[in-house]
């Protein structure tokens, strides 16, 4: 179980729900080398959008965050936009998805997939 930490603008946290879902997906794929990659790309209705993928590799300059045996990697270009954020996993009427609760975003779109700084 993760312990709730105070807001830290220099790192990225994972919710318990995100940790459980990543662990479940890695187990399902039977590949313990998989890591959740969180990244930012240009586009979306607000200027930037969040991306999520699973990756076996990480680059030397990636930031790796490990929580309860689950690893999230973030490339150096995306990290400044994500610093201070929480990666969460939601299940609801809109479907199931990873989301980023980003205190750096000044605006977000209705679905929460894109944002502006």
UniProtKB/TrEMBL annotation:
Keyword Plastid: no
Pfam families per record: Fe-S_biosyn
Keyword annotations of the record: Iron, Iron-sulfur, Metal-binding
Keyword Iron-sulfur: yes
GO cellular component terms given for this protein: cytosol
Annotated InterPro entries: ATAP, ATAP_core_dom, ErpA_proteobact, FeS_cluster_insertion_CS, HesB-like_dom_sf
PROSITE patterns to which the protein is assigned, alphabetical: HESB
Any GO molecular function: iron ion binding
Annotated residues for binding of iron-sulfur cluster: 45, 109, 111
Top-rank lineage group of the source organism: Bacteria
Free-text remark on how the cofactor is bound: Binds 1 iron-sulfur cluster per subunit.
Domain Core intervals: 11-112
Required cofactor(s): iron-sulfur cluster
GO annotation, biological process: iron-sulfur cluster assembly
Subunit structure of this chain's protein: Homodimer.
NCBIfam families hit by this protein: iron-sulfur cluster assembly accessory protein, PRK13623.1
HAMAP family: Fe_S_insert_ErpA (MF_01380)
Similarity comment: Belongs to the HesB/IscA family.
Biological role stated in the UniProt entry: Required for insertion of 4Fe-4S clusters for at least IspG.
The protein, known as: Iron-sulfur cluster insertion protein ErpA
Gene field: erpA
């Amino acid at each position: 179980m993760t312990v709730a930490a105070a807001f830290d603008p220099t790192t990225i946290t994972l919710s318990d729900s995100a940790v459980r879902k990543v662990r479940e997906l890695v187990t399902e794929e039977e590949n313990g080398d998989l890591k959740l990659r969180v990244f930012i790309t240009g586009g979306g209705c607000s200027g930037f959008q969040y991306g999520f993928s699973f990756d076996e590799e990480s680059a030397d300059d990636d930031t790796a965050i490990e929580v309860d045996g689950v690893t999230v990697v973030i490339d150096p270009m995306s990290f400044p936009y994500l610093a201070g954020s929480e990666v969460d996993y939601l299940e609801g009427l809109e479907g199931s998805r990873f989301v980023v609760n980003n205190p750096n975003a000044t605006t977000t779109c209705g679905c929460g997939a894109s944002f502006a700084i």
